[in-house]
């Protein structure tokens, strides 16, 4: 907001200067010029008859004296001060505006919030390399546009000098006099327009291509990470890298090339122009500059602090609402609506108060900026007029100084905004690159072998010890050993948290054991091709199957991307899904909704079974596949599972003991170890943990 205001004022001041010259051409008279300027000052921001008006008249008289060469100027010392303000106070306003960039994080905030990893230039280079020609083109065009921008103030000065000469000498016709420099200027504007269009087109092409390459590479890198990586990193955070961070990086990248290059070139170039026009004014500017930057930084940091506090308060209020709405059933069950309402209202009131304070701060700041901006323009005209009257400057020089100083101010303001943007962009880039250079500890491809012989399907867990990487101190499996004989069904039961699902995860090679080996047909699974192992050997069905938001056909085909429609239908028939699928109007083309919301639990489970069966796996892992279903659904799904498990090595992780009584081997797990093993009848006759579990479940079932 404050920046907007500043730019508006900057544009106003600039357009005043430009219109000043153009009107002088149109009217051809100095007093008309003054009337125009005075009336504009009055109608836009100044009350009539204010001191500004008087200063302008004095300046105008000085110009008049200068052109008629009849009088001497007042002392230079009285006028240099205001002129210096032209550049420096505008800079002050811009710096303060940037500091008070209340809607964005400032560099310091970004640095404090995240511990930013190193920015890896070589990774950026890999993305930029394919776009190098377009990028060089954009840089050259942007540079050209900036160089022309340095020329424009000087040419405007020439134009004003022509007007002034005409006023003085009245030689030739006005149009003839002005035609040459005006046409040159027009030509310059046209070329600058073309260069600007060209570099923006090229730059946005480069930016978009770099960003889309980055997105694809980042997604590829993320999706290939192992499961442990996803245990340690929140999904929201990862999605943020793909969206917000890449967007931020792209904006910064484009801004640095366009605005950065242009602003630096213009600042240096226009400073040289300012020095050539008036070394004294320029010298004083350089002296005053640091004080104003300091003052701007102080005001800015105060406003920034207010803004941060207000934002934190808004976040607190949102948190309260989020929690209440997210747990609305609990809130209602305890009749706590009123209490939640009060909590929310309290936080919202606090945030309102803080935002009002911030608004007040910004308003005072903007008021000061406004006054400063107007004073500066007037100061320059006053000072410039005095210099003109002492023959140290021509009216054209004054024009050039005004426009060049405005260009410097705008460029410096852009650079200070840019600095924040560069820090934000580099932090975003560093976070993206951090994930790009990650290597998965269990790579999907990487030289693993595919056995030549057809699989027998024997699995050996040999002396396995395992801790999850996110909890290295907590040993989940302790010297765990188990054999899954080929084409037999082995069930694991036991207390919650005993490590049953962990066994299945190790077979899928979601994790590697800390000690011990998992063997498939006598081969260490770490030596096998992982994509083959997961894609063709092992079928996995868990308690809450996750479907993708596409059609039923596509969801089943997820198990085997090259499967024909006939194969999909056959898998659906095996899993008892065909009939219900055909009862939908769109059949296999029915969309299942996000995460399968448009289907019942039993229907989703049968589609998941079809998805696992379509790849005809030698080994099937069922992790509590029926425990979330009601009795009726369980019957249909169980029937499908019985059919699916025939002729395969099956590992069942079970809660409901009724579903595994027919298993060839039942293992009871406790505290990361197998404590009992045998058939259902053998274990019952032992009267140990298993019969306890059965007794408890029967008792619960009778309640
Ligand atoms: N991704 C993980 N990261 C860290 N610890 C985990 C992770 N998954 C499971 N654990 C821990 O490992 C232990 C065994 O969990 P596991 O899921 O294998 O038990 P379970 O026997 O299948 O339990 P349940 O029957 O309740 O599903 C538990 O203490 C659990 O907290």
UniProtKB/TrEMBL annotation:
One of its GO terms (cellular component) is mitochondrial inner membrane. One of its GO terms (molecular function) is ATP binding. InterPro entries: AAA+_ATPase, ABC1_TM_dom, ABC1_TM_sf, ABC_transporter-like_ATP-bd, ABC_transporter-like_CS, P-loop_NTPase, Type_1_exporter. The chain crosses the membrane at residues 132-152, 186-206, 260-277, 283-303. Pfam families: ABC_membrane (PF00664), ABC_tran (PF00005). Residues 136-424 form the ABC transmembrane type-1 domain. Residues 459-696 form the ABC transporter domain. It is found in: Mitochondrion inner membrane. It is a multi-pass membrane protein. Keywords: ATP-binding, Ion transport, Membrane, Mitochondrion, Mitochondrion inner membrane, Nucleotide-binding, Potassium, Potassium transport, Transit peptide, Transmembrane, Transmembrane helix, Transport. One of its GO terms (biological process) is oligopeptide export from mitochondrion. Gene3D superfamilies: ABC transporter type 1, transmembrane domain, P-loop containing nucleotide triphosphate hydrolases. Belongs to the ABC transporter superfamily. ABCB family. Multidrug resistance exporter (TC 3.A.1.201) subfamily. This is Mitochondrial potassium channel ATP-binding subunit. It comes from Xiphophorus maculatus (Southern platyfish).
């Amino acid at each position: 907001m404050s920046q907007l205001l500043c730019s508006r004022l900057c544009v106003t001041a600039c357009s005043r200067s430009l219109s000043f010259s153009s009107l002088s051409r149109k009217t051809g008279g100095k007093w008309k010029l003054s009337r125009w300027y005075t009336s504009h000052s009055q109608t836009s921001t100044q009350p009539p008859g204010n001191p500004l008006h008087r200063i302008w008249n004095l300046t105008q008289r000085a110009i008049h004296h200068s052109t008629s060469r009849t009088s001497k100027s007042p002392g230079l010392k009285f006028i240099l001060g205001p002129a210096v303000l032209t550049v420096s106070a505008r800079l002050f306003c811009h710096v303060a505006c940037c500091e008070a960039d209340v809607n964005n994080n400032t560099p310091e905030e970004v640095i404090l919030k995240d511990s930013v990893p190193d920015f890896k230039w070589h990774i950026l280079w890999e993305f930029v390399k394919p776009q190098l020609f377009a990028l060089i083109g954009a840089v050259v065009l942007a540079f050209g546009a900036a160089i022309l921008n340095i020329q424009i103030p000087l040419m405007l000065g020439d134009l004003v000098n022509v007007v002034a000469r005409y006023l003085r000498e009245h030689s030739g016709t006005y149009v003839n006099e002005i035609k040459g420099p005006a046409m040159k200027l027009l030509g310059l504007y046209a070329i600058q327009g073309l260069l600007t269009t060209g570099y923006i087109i090229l730059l946005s092409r480069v930016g978009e291509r770099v960003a889309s390459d980055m997105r694809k590479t980042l997604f590829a890198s993320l999706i290939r990470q192992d499961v442990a990586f996803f245990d340690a990193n929140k999904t929201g955070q990862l999605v943020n890298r793909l969206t917000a961070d890449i967007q931020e990086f792209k904006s910064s990248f484009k801004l640095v090339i366009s605005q950065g290059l242009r602003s630096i070139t213009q600042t240096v170039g226009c400073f040289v122009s300012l020095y050539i026009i008036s070394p004294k004014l320029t010298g004083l500017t350089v002296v005053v500059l640091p004080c104003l930057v300091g003052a701007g930084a102080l005001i800015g940091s105060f406003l920034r602090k207010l803004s941060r506090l207000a934002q934190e308060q808004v976040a607190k209020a949102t948190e309260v609402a989020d929690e209440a709405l997210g747990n609305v059933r609990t809130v209602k069950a305890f009749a706590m609506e009123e209490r939640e309402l009060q909590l929310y209202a309290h936080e919202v009131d606090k945030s309102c108060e803080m935002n009002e304070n911030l608004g007040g701060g910004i308003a005072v700041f903007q008021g000061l900026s406004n006054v400063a901006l107007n004073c500066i323009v007037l100061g320059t005209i006053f000072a410039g007029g005095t210099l003109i009257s002492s023959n140290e400057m021509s009216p054209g020089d004054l024009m050039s100084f005004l426009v060049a100083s405005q260009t410097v101010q705008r460029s410096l303001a852009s650079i200070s905004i840019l600095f924040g943007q560069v820090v934000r962009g580099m932090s975003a880039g560093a976070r993206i690159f951090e994930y790009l250079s990650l290597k998965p500890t269990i790579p999907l491809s990487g030289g693993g072998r595919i056995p030549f012989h057809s699989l027998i399907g024997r699995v050996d867990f040999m002396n396995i010890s395992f801790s999850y990487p996110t909890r290295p101190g907590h040993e989940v499996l302790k010297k765990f050993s188990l054999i899954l004989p080929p084409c037999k069904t082995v069930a694991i039961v036991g207390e919650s948290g005993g490590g049953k699902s962990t066994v299945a995860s190790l077979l899928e090679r979601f994790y590697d054991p800390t000690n011990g080996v998992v063997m498939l047909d006598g081969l260490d699974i770490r030596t096998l091709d992982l994509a083959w192992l997961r894609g063709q050997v092992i079928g996995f069905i868990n308690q809450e199957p996750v479907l993708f938001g596409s059609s039923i056909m596509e969801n089943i085909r997820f198990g085997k991307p090259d499967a024909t429609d006939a194969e999909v239908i056959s898998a659906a028939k095996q899993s008892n899904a065909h009939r219900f699928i055909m009862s939908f109007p769109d059949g296999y083309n029915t969309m299942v909704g996000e995460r399968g919301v448009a289907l019942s639990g039993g229907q989703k489970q049968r589609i998941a079974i079809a998805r696992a069966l379509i790849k005809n796996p030698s080994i099937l892992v069922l992790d509590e596949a029926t425990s979330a279903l009601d009795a009726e659904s369980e019957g249909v799904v169980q029937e499908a599972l019985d059919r699916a498990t025939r002729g395969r090595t099956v590992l069942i992780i079970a809660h409901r003991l009724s579903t595994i009584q027919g298993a060839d081997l039942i293992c009871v797990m406790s505290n990361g170890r197998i404590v009992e093993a045998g058939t259902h009848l053998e274990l019952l006759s032992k009267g140990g943990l298993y019969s306890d579990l059965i007794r408890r479940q029967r008792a619960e079932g009778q309640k």
